[in-house]
Every structure is written in structure tokens, then in C-alpha cells.
Specification:
Layout lengths: L20 H16 L1 E8 L5 E14 L2 E8 L4 E6 L7 E6 L7 H11 L5 E7 L4 H8 L5 E2 L5 E7 L2 H9 L5 E5 L1 H17 L3
Antiparallel strand pairs: 1-2, 1-5, 2-3, 3-4, 6-8, 6-9, 7-8
Helix pairs in contact: 4-5
Length: about 200
Amino acid sequence: MPGQKTARDQTYVDLDFKPAPNDKAHMGPIHQAIKDRQYVSFPYLDNKGAETERKLEPMGLFLKGYTWYLYGYCLTRMDIRVFRLSRIGDLKILTEQFVRRDITLQDVEEQFMSRVDFKKLQVELIFQPEIKTRVRDEFGFDQMIVSPDGTLSLTTYFSSMERAIQKIISYGCMVKVLEPPELISNIQHHIQMMAQLYER
């Protein structure tokens, strides 16, 4: 019948880029502020839990890894900055306007890549067979060695000690760190701190 869709009409790739509710609430006002070249201000929570008040010349929104970000020139830090929408608090659109700087998203990405050393920390890990699928999803096939007992060992890299700890802890008892010693020590400390939370 006219107007009805059949299985033949359906696409074979379905991508869902809908923002989370908190992101969606911010996107409309931010988009308008970018268009009208109005300053915005907001409290921002970083990945260590510290909150700072920011004033920004908003320049664009972009989606990366299913996460929405805002980039612009931060008057608080006097530099280009990128903000994850989910970490933005009470957003305020200010009445004063700014003259847009000649900054593109490519400039932002180049600056970010130059600041972050993605191979700062080399780590050797061994995983239990039960999480083989997740390990392959997150680390790929190439660098993995499968032992006769089914365990998977690999050498990988992290940009910081904090990111390494966060990632490794998420695997619980299914992973063991073999190298480096300072990471092993940090993981042991975190486990002890977690255990203290449940002591009677």
C-alpha cells in the first residue's frame, strides 16, 4: 500500500546519535549562543571531581565516541578548551557578544593531540578467558597472545596513571597487571581503599 514501509525499504545500518537528556537540555541553548555569538558561563566538573566556573566563547558542538562535546575559547583559562556536555552544570547564556576567533575543530583536535602522550605508560596485562570478548572489543586482535590455558596477555599503553587505574579496575578480578611495578603498587592501594569501605 502507498505510504507503508516494507522490509525491503529498511536500511541495513542503524545509527542512534540521540543525546542523553542532560546533553539534550544544553544543546539547544548552546547552539543558539554559538549562532548569536553570545558568551556562556557554567560550572564544569572535571574527571577528578573538581568543579570550576567557566566563561566561554562557544564555537561548536561535536560528537565523538557517542559523546557530545562543546569547544570554544575559555576566558577562565585563556585558551582553547573542550567540554563534555554531561559535565556542564547550570548553563547561563550571557547577553554580551564576542567576535569569533579564527579557530576550527581541526585546530582543537591538533592542540589536543599535541598535549596528550597516548603512550606515556606502557602496561603488560593478563586477562582471564571469561572476558575474551570484551578484551578483543576494546584492545583488538593484533597485539593479543592466547596461552594454552586460555588466558590472554597483551602490552598496551595509557596516557596517564589515572586512566590506567580506572580502566584496569573496571575489569575487577578478571585481569592482573604484570608491569610496571608502580602501577601494580597503585592498583594494590586502590583495592585496599575499596576494601576499607566494606569493613565493619
